[in-house]
C-alpha cells in the first residue's frame, strides 16, 4: 500500500456542482429558472445583437455572468480584469466548453478600470449597449489596516465615479454594478463601502439606466471559505471553520444568472435581491464543512486549537472497526471500467480517459484484481467494500473487513472556533425596515424600490472627506469609521481588534 498522492487529484472525480445543489443551495433547479422562462422572449430582444463590456469579468460572479450572457447572441464582448491569469483561464474555459455562443468580436484586457488606458479602450471599442461592473474588494478581511481600507474604498467607490462619468458621455441601454447583502445595515467597512457605492450609482439613475443587486454568498467562489477548504486539501493542510455563522448561498451559476436578470430586466434605480427564507435557506458553515468531508469519504477530526490542528497530519488512514479489524485504504489502480450507466438529467455521456480504461461517466462499474466488483459512487458491494473518490490520483477502495463495519472513515483535522473577528455579522439580510419592496415582478427575486438618492454634491462631500483623511499621515481606521458613520447613520461597525488574517 502506498501513501496518498498530494494535490486535488480527486477533483476530476468529484462533482462539485452536484454537491452544491444537494448540500449547499439544496435546489435541483436554478433559483432563476422560472424567471428566465418567464422573460425568455424579452431577454432575447434586449440582449441579442448587443455590444457588451464586462469589468471584473474573470472573477467568480463576473465569469458566470458572461456564461449566462453567452446563451444569447451578443454581437461583441469586451472583458476587462486586473487578473491576467484569470482572463486566460476564462478564454480557455469558454472556448473549451463548446456550449457558449462566443461572438466574433471577443477580446480581453488585463487592465484596471481606474487607469487611463481603460478610458482609451472604452473610446476605441464603444459605444456599448450593456456595461456590467464586477470589480470590487469583497472581503471583510480587507479592513485589517488603513492601507487595505484605502485600497478598498478607492476600488469600491472612488473609481466608480470616473466610470460613471465615462458612461454619461456614451450612455448604454443597461448598466449594472454589483453590490452585496452586507450593504444592508452594514457592520464592516466593506459593507459600508458598497452601501456608499449604491448611493453613488443611484445618484446617476436619472441620466443612466442604473441597476444593482444584493445577494448571498456564492458557494465555492474565489477566495471564499469553502473554496479555501479545497485549497487546504490540495496542500494537505488542516481546516478552520467558524461556529455560529449562518449564511444564504447561491451557486456560481445562479450568481451570474441573478446579475444578468437584474441588469437586463431591472428598472433604473432597482436594487435586486434573491427571495430566500432564513428558516429554509440559511445554513451554517460548520454544516457545509462536515457535508463536504462526508462527500469526500471523510469525517472531521475535531481539534481544540490551531496548534493542535497543525500537529495532526491530515491522513487518518486507519479507522477502528467494530469487529476489531483495521480499515485499509488503497488506490484502485487495478480497477478496470467495464460498463457505464446514464443518469436522468446528466446530459450526454462523454468519454473519460482514466489510467486503466475508459468510461462514459464516473458512475460506472469496476472490478478489482481479486474479482471484487464495485458499482457507482459510494455504492456498497458484497463483502462490505465501498468505492469512492479520495486523495489519490484515481479512485480509492476502502476495506473494512469482509463483514465488519467501520466506526469512522478517514479523518481531516478541523479547528471549529467561535467567530471573534471585526466586522463579522452573524446573520444576513437583503433589505432594511422602511425600504419599499416589489415582490411581484419576478418569481424568485425581489426589488428594493425606494433606495435613497442623494445629490452628487452631497456625495462629492463625503468623497472629499475620505480623500482628505487618506491624505493625512496619521489617519486611523477609527477615523474612517467615524466619517462613514456620519454619512451612513445605520452603519454600526463591529470592532474586536482581530482580523481574519490572524487565523489559518
In short:
The chain is an alpha/beta fold and 504 residues long. It contains 15 helices and 25 strands. Helix 4 packs across helix 10, helix 7 (146-169) runs parallel beside helix 8 (189-202) and helix 14 packs antiparallel against helix 15.
Explain what the structure shows.
It is a single chain. Residues 1-10 and 316-408 have low confidence and may be disordered. β16 (352-354) and β17 form a beta hairpin. The protein has a domain at 31-218 and 250-283 and 429-455: NAD(P)-binding Rossmann-like Domain (Rossmann fold, 3-Layer(aba) Sandwich), CATH 3.40.50.720. By secondary structure, it is an alpha/beta fold. The strands form seven sheets. It has a nine-stranded mixed sheet with strand order 3-2-1-4-5-6-11-25-24, sandwiched between helices. 33% of the residues lie in helices and 20% in strands.
Structural class: alpha/beta
Widest sheet: strand ordering: 3-2-1-4-5-6-11-25-24
Helix content: 25-40%
Number of strands: 25
| Main beta sheet strand tally, sense and closure | 9 strands, mixed
Separate helix tally: 15
Q: Taking Cα atoms only, what radius of gyration do you get, to the nearest Å?
A: 25 Å
Anisotropy-based shape = globular
Keywords:
single chain; 504 residues; alpha/beta; Rossmann fold; nine-stranded mixed β-sheet
Topology overview:
Blueprint: H1 16-24, H2 33-38, H3 40-47, E1 51-55, H4 60-69, E2 76-80, H5 84-97, E3 105-109, H6 116-125, E4 130-133, H7 146-169, E5 174-178, H8 189-202, E6 210-213, E7 217-218, H9 225-234, E8 239-243, E9 246-247, E10 249-250, H10 252-265, E11 270-274, H11 278-281, E12 283-284, H12 285-295, E13 298-303, H13 306-311, E14 328-331, E15 336-340, E16 352-354, E17 357-359, E18 364-367, E19 373-375, E20 380-381, E21 385-389, E22 395-399, E23 410-418, E24 437-438, E25 445-448, H14 456-471, H15 477-487
Parallel strand pairs: 1-2, 1-4, 2-3, 4-5, 5-6, 6-11, 7-10, 8-23, 13-23
Antiparallel strand pairs: 9-12, 11-25, 14-22, 15-18, 16-17, 18-19, 20-21, 21-22, 24-25
Helix pairs in contact: 4-10, 7-8, 14-15
